[in-house]
């Protein structure tokens, strides 16, 4: 299984990294077991949700070689015993030689190596990790430490082509979505929740809104609150509803309440000004109603003034205060403003089977400035669930970013190109041939001469031509031979790609059986030939030293980086590897020269 981890340093390993190899059967068996234990770890990791304030979710399952669960654990709150240590305690003697499943790489926040030490001391033989730690300063170090102690560590996602493992990895991403957002954006993870009637109103035209959704739905809302660092509403909701915004399940975590109000034209008496159990923060425009600000302060309500009171500024502020997860329970005006400033990641809508009517009655989202239905924002990964009489529809406005593939993890980057410091590197994107660095694209018009058949050489109009044709090389079928010729003589790289892909889809029997094993190698050879043939391309490649190269293809999730960074970026990786080879050669020749002198 070690071959599954991404080691791009030496070409012989390339084909092993491409996975679907001879012992498929064996692997599939492992994949299913690994996937189910990782999912279990992800589920466990969420057990403290609602009970403690949002924190990174860690779960650990220890399984015996025969596949039985020996022990489990999850991190209960910040500063409590690590999941791994709890699981090791529960499993006792059964740890020796077992496999530990972690939804996420441990983060050694306090320098005591508690999680890793527990696993090492217990004699765990193998560790499977769902995702690497998303925070830069922790990412990769626990994995490196365990490997350096001889433990086999497998990270999902570095084994991309198995559907079950991808599903399990997705669970790991979802369960720590807020933390992942923390790692790659400057705002906390935000969820917009509203309750509306079947005719799309969030209140009667009078403004009365108690209640649209059922009691059961409202209990679910308390749960959502319990999983958030803060609940936020606008001034109008305070005036209209006088909400309490507490998580009234008797116990557990209660979020801070935030009110955004420009005017500070707010009541003297409001439930939110009672801060005996939970705190309230009012975010307002600098200089608004100073006397009222004093009044709030006397009540114990914190007032924060902003030069520009808008959702983005406010969210950036709370990000800096360490908030991971925010629940927006505002009306349509503020919701629209939050959506347009791009701070809402997920939407949760309770739809009650009621009709209230009213052409002036408010709706969940106010003006977004869109004029055509084609501009509508589409939710991703939508879920539908019945809650009592209501329907709960939820989905993402922005996918959970997947940090792993595009920017290889610290270890992987180092293995691909030791000269790149992942903490200081910039990213160079390339895709269309006419853009800056467009010559890195496989569509660039740089013919290559490559061996064909036994010792015959042929010229291919582009790397793409060569790569596509190779899918059908060596197959004993005249139709396969035709394909090769059609691709070789295709007028453009685009047409070569089109023929190659459609033939592969329509007539998979024409594709060489070892294609998945050799495709990375084939690509690497073609790239090497291209960059060695054209000195100016080699110079351009060398000039990018220190940067991470990413093919910005939005569709190709294997060779490219994908639209949201979800792709594996193998083309970028191979170019970085080639670059590092060239850098190595030039330093060797420089050494030789100095010796000769
Ligand atoms: N069914 C449901 O799920 C819910 C229903 N409601 C209902 O919605 C109605 C209120 O809707 P609505 O007025 O939209 O709600 P909000 O009060 O939640 O949002 C508008 C208010 O937010 C404040 N605000 C501060 N900064 C901004 C900004 N940049 N952009 C926009 N607003 C900002 C302003 O307060 P200020 O005026 O003080 O400056 C503004 O009046 C009520 O009838 C309430 O009952 C509300 C929440 C949920
Ligand atoms: N009317 C309405 C909701 N409205 C939201 O709940 C807030 C009231 O919270 P609290 O004072 O804590 O009960 C209110 O201000 C608004 O944000 N929510 C729902 O799930 N269903 C409903 O029907």
Automatic annotation (TrEMBL):
Gene Ontology biological-process annotations: carbohydrate derivative metabolic process; riboflavin biosynthetic process
Transmembrane segments: none
Pathway(s) this gene product operates in, as recorded in its UniProt entry: Cofactor biosynthesis; riboflavin biosynthesis; 5-amino-6-(D-ribitylamino)uracil from GTP: step 3/4
Gene: LOC108805916
GO CC list: chloroplast
Catalytic activity of the protein: 2,5-diamino-6-hydroxy-4-(5-phosphoribosylamino)-pyrimidine + H2O = 2,5,6-triamino-4-hydroxypyrimidine + D-ribose 5-phosphate; 5-amino-6-(5-phospho-D-ribitylamino)uracil + NADP(+) = 5-amino-6-(5-phospho-D-ribosylamino)uracil + NADPH + H(+); 5-amino-6-(5-phospho-D-ribosylamino)uracil + H2O = 5,6-diaminouracil + D-ribose 5-phosphate
Keywords per UniProt: Chloroplast, Glycosidase, Hydrolase, Multifunctional enzyme, NADP, Oxidoreductase, Plastid, Transit peptide
Domain of life: Eukaryota
Name of the protein described by the UniProt record: Riboflavin biosynthesis protein PYRR, chloroplastic
Annotated SUPFAM superfamilies: Cytidine deaminase-like, Dihydrofolate reductase-like, YbiA-like
Family per similarity comment: In the C-terminal section; belongs to the YbiA family.
EC numbers for this chain: 1.1.1.193
Pfam family, one: dCMP_cyt_deam_1
Localization of this protein: Plastid, Chloroplast
EC category name: oxidoreductase
MF GO annotations: 5-amino-6-(5-phosphoribosylamino)uracil reductase activity; diaminohydroxyphosphoribosylaminopyrimidine deaminase activity; hydrolase activity, hydrolyzing N-glycosyl compounds; NADP binding
Alphabetical list of CDD domains matching this protein: NADAR, Riboflavin_deaminase-reductase
Annotated ranges, domain CMP/dCMP-type deaminase: 32-154
